[in-house]
Q: What sequence folds into this?
């Protein structure tokens, strides 16, 4: 232990991100430590130089034009469905029943806008859901297609599970008894939507299966149970704290057997 | 006399114009970061277009008054992760994360002797050399490059970066520190500089 400021602290100092008390403490140290003072200056210099060097690629003018045109097209597509009240003459609106009519109109408009927003949110969720499946699917295909070795290669669940200790912020169980003709091949630490997940690789006969296990907050956009993608079956399931996606080209019934075994094992040692 | 809500409904206009007002000024930044991450113009254009359309279609879910820049960069980053270049980069990316992620504590400092070999003049030359620094940035793995770009080039605060990348603040700090350490190592490793060729 040198007692010097860490790189993280020096970086935060250069970025102006230290809390007031840590700032005071760092300043006191810098006043007495030429090495850290020199290092802090280098950090500031590097930050400033990086800011300039990073401004490297200029936006092509045709891209901006194209995006403007696309925005305009999107606008015209949705304009027919957009709900805004038509201009109504005030004298008519504020007749004898004007206020009541206005209140009704307002309620109607608000409810339609809420419905519209809910639909748009559902659309975004659907896009995110599709992106999640795409990511998992790509990971599975990359694992099969590439010659990349698995990060942990073992058929022993007591080897595979402990390998994840300290690598992911959750734990899981692997089934002791697998369906017939099913073996564990190993696992990878990977990421879906920026969240760490365990990718378990199984073989069912000659078919390979990827099972992605992750925490619920990161993988919440999953509503359906089974889907198809490019001839592969994608199956989602829940455990107590985890959500999982299984992908394979094996028969769905056999995939279900494996999924059930994994799902069941999560409740056994809790 | 008109009611306020009527005026708003008539004069606010389509949401698209509000979106364009927020998004268009950010296009150069989005494109710059997209190019850095995808490393080619075609992929960068595709990435920006995909981001722009996703953001436009999902603009209703954006809360007015919150940070639009962090919101749209988050969309860009998620789009990048599912893009061909993002997938290709991932296998090397995550192994490094796994080995070195250390939260608030950050990486240990270089030994004193290592630091002392660099004179202030050498450092100044290295850091002022824009091409050398860009070459060093190209060597950074995407998780380190993206935090450096967001922090130094886009001048985002750590909490905005944490939101954009969907990672904890401690991880942001750790990655920035590692990114800068890697930049310096890459600069020091460049032959023309380490031999004093530019002096």
A:
């Amino acid at each position: 232990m040198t007692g010097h400021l860490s790189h993280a602290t020096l970086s935060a100092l250069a970025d102006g991100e230290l809390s007031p008390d840590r700032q005071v403490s760092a300043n006191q140290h810098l006043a007495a430590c030429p090495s850290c003072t020199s290092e802090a200056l280098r950090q500031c210099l590097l930050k400033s130089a990086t800011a300039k060097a990073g401004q490297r690629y200029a936006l092509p003018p045709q891209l901006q034009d194209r995006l403007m045109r696309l925005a305009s097209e999107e606008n015209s597509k949705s304009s027919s469905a957009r709900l805004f009240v038509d201009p109504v003459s005030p004298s008519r609106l504020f007749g004898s029943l004007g206020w009541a009519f206005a209140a009704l109109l307002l309620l109607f408009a608000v409810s339609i806008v809420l419905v519209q927003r809910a639909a748009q949110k559902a659309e975004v969720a659907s896009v995110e859901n599709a992106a999640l499946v795409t990511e998992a699917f790509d990971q599975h295909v990359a694992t099969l297609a590439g010659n990349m070795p698995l990060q942990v290669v073992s058929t022993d669940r007591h080897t595979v599970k402990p390998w994840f200790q300290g690598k992911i912020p959750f734990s899981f169980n692997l089934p002791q008894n697998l369906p017939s003709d099913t073996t564990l091949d190993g696992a990878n630490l990977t990421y879906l939507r920026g969240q760490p997940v365990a990718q378990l690789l199984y073989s069912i006969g000659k078919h390979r299966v990827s099972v992605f296990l992750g925490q619920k907050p990161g993988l919440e956009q999953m509503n359906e149970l089974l889907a198809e993608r490019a001839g592969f079956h994608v199956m989602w399931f829940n455990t107590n704290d985890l959500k999982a996606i299984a992908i394979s080209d094996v028969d769905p019934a056999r995939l279900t057997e494996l999924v059930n075994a994994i799902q069941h094992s999560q409740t056994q040692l809790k | 006399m008109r009611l306020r809500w009527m005026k708003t409904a008539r004069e606010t206009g389509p949401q698209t114009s509000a979106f364009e007002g927020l998004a268009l000024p950010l296009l150069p930044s989005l494109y710059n970061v997209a190019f850095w991450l995808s490393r080619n113009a075609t992929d960068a254009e595709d990435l920006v277009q995909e981001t722009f359309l996703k953001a436009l279609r999902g603009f209703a879910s954006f809360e007015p008054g919150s940070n639009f820049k962090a919101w749209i960069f988050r969309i860009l980053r998620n789009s990048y992760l599912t893009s061909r270049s993002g997938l290709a980069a991932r296998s090397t990316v995550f192994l490094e994360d796994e080995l070195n992620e250390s939260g608030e504590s950050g990486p240990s400092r270089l030994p004193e002797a290592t630091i002392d070999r660099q004179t202030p003049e050498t450092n100044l030359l290295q850091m002022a050399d824009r091409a050398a620094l860009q070459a060093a940035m190209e060597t950074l793995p995407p998780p380190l490059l993206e935090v450096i770009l967001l922090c130094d080039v886009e001048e985002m605060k750590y909490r905005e970066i944490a939101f954009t990348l969907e990672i904890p603040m401690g991880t942001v700090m750790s990655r920035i520190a590692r990114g800068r350490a890697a930049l310096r190592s890459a600069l020091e490793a460049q032959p023309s500089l380490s031999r004093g060729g530019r002096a």
Q: What stands out?
A: Chain B touches chain A through 78 residues (CB under 8 Å). The mean pLDDT of chain B is 76.
